[in-house]
Records
---
Amino acid sequence: MGYSTASRTIGREKTMSGFKDFEQYDGLGLAALVRRREVKPAELLDAAIGLVEERNPALNAVICRMDAQARAALAAGLPAGPFTGVPYLLKDLGAFYTGVPTSFGSRLYAGYVPDHDSELTARLKRAGLVIFGRTNTPEVGLAPSTEPRLFGPTRNPWNLGHSAGGSSGGAAAAVASGMLPMAHATDGGGSIRIPASCCGLFGLKPTRARNPLGPDAGEGWGGAAVAHAVTRTVRDSAALLDATSGPDVGDPYWAPPPAGRFLDEVGRDPGRLRIALTTTPWNGQPVDPECAEAATAAAKLCQSLGHHVEEARPEIDAAALGLAVRTIIGANVRALLDARAAALGRSLAPSDVETVTWTMAQIGASATAADYARSIGVVHRTGRAVARFFTRYDILLSPTMCQPPFPLGVLDMSNPGQDAYLAAVLASVAFTSLFNSSGNPAMSVPLAWSRGGLPIGVQFAGRFGDEATLFRLGAQLETAQPWSGRRPAGAGSGR
């Protein structure tokens, strides 16, 4: 596999703004240059900062700069890790950094400054990554598009009038536009896979509890929420998961330990996989023909690679699951907002948050403890149904989303047209959210583009704890139909 089109003499091709060929490399490629002393970490940081300054005004992907912290980390000396010297961005939720504001995309949390690192942040630092900013997210990560009132909308690099997805839309727009090769992301209903689909990236949601959420949480949204990244290459995703995964002290539970390094799975023969195909979502939303075509084309590609494909899907009670998930998320949102209001010493008001956030908080306030317990039971029953399905199949293939990326405004959380908003949410999460409830790993792979020039992702879900098979298949697909060299014409092109 080739990850660079740059000349081997690149060590001398530098500009005042940093390393000239920065965009031609993935994260592991940049780290290899640092190890060979062909480029210095400071030059990579300068290059990334220069690209943010050039492209972020059009995209609004990065909402907090951490140049001083990044330069301080360089001055202190970076640890030797798989990504030593590679610039990295944290999402504005899901990972605290000591002394740097984390707002959760919310005016209510504006000015909140944690006094400690999350365990995930500590592991990212130990991997040698140079964290230099935070990316935009919708308020408390609730929407599949990134349009918070606090910072304004993030725009899709492929077409500035369209959504970059959510809730990790800022991360995806930054990576897709070439500001850096990979960025931190989280996923509670599709928030890694949806922006990966919208922006033409690889996005893996790991198995439940593969990565730690401590010390501030043992789980997110009843076990649905996980953290990882959006990347341009499969191997970066695998190596990053090697660096961050594994239980933290005091975690209530954790994912099954892998047999070996995830990076070693990249390029390994996946064998003849039993792949189930569905283009029918569980929640009954209509599927755009281009999204269905993307999934069926991916199925044909898998067949050409020697895999067995047939139509099948797990049968679940989608209506019961939808109500259960709404109760669980509503309860968690209410608890988060109440905690902030208590810290501020005042009561919550509807004006503190956006329309959708307040609606979810009201759902959480009206639910009883018994409602929550029943909802967890529904989620667990659903997980068992999905697990039984994966005793017959290795992979479930589907579209990532029911529609190509929506125009900006449709998924605005302060949009007064709540019926249109809800329909767009259901179309975004129709294929993704099941695997947050069941805990299975799933990846969005950038295998298609719409006739209008927007990316369309294809989702592959695997059995619980089996990221290894996904990485093997993902690498096989990447070799058969490379995507990392396909980039937007320019962040400001509006194309």
Note: The radius of gyration is 21 Å.
---
Amino acid sequence: MAPFFRRNAGPHGSGRRVWIYVTVLAFVVVDIALVVWAVSDRTPPTAVGPVSSSVEPTVTPTAFPTLSVSPEPVESPVSSVTTAVPPTRILTALNDLVAWRAATGPCPDTSASPEYTLDGGLTWTPTDATGPTDVTSLQSITVEDDGIASMVGLSGEGCNPEFIKTFIAGGNYRAYPDQLDDEWFVDPTDSTELHTPQGDASVPCTQAVVVAPQNSSDAAILCSDQSVYTTQDSGETWSSSIIFAGAVNLSVMADGYHVAILENAECAGVQLATLSLENSISSTSHCLVTDTSSSAGGGIGLSEADGALWVWVGDTIKKSLDGGATWEP
């Protein structure tokens, strides 16, 4: 058996092994490069600008139909009479049969010539108050009985307020200066001042044209801008105002006040509004259809007493026993 022995490869065998290692290493490097290129090719592109992790989603609102509601039209009465002036007609009733009336105007040019009726307005008896008292330009009339009536007028050239009274149905008149303090009247020299039974008071408007007293503490005033105020403490405080387009006069009623409205679009004549003592509108109810062409400028008088409502329009006296629903004669 031949002896076992290892043959020496020599210098050429060692060189071949080096090239084999280099070749394998190059193959591995190329392979790694290909893998890196493949992976980097799948990397998403870099975002431009900052990226917030709490971005709110954009919400597009859903459009819903808009409900359009048109308010019901409110018809406001319209009148060509835009200013109230001191009335030129004074009318005060005692009941459905007895009443006094007087035309009035500037002092001292307007004589005091009141008239009275005892038959519901069918006939009127004239009297003369200026002759015995020197009073002109009557401001108010109060009726106490068939033949007893008192009045506030303006005295003489000075036109100072004066209280006069008759006990025999105008057969004679006499002045009672001490009783003037208990009366209501607008100051004839300053229409922003009102005399009350408790003293003088300022009115809440630029010009008061008429006052309608219930008693010594309750009254209503009509102002030149056709606003109405009431007081329950002799003018110390006043209610908020209510404006009546076309208002020309007012008077007391059993539990409030009447306001006479002229040339209202809703009434071809005189419309009557009623107020409570606290100055809340009860109604603008009844219409007296009549010719009012000669009644502008304060030419309407009205009064209610003992269930009888009287209205003096121009040369006509109308009366209602049902609050203005029907009129006679």
Note: The longest helix spans residues 10-41.
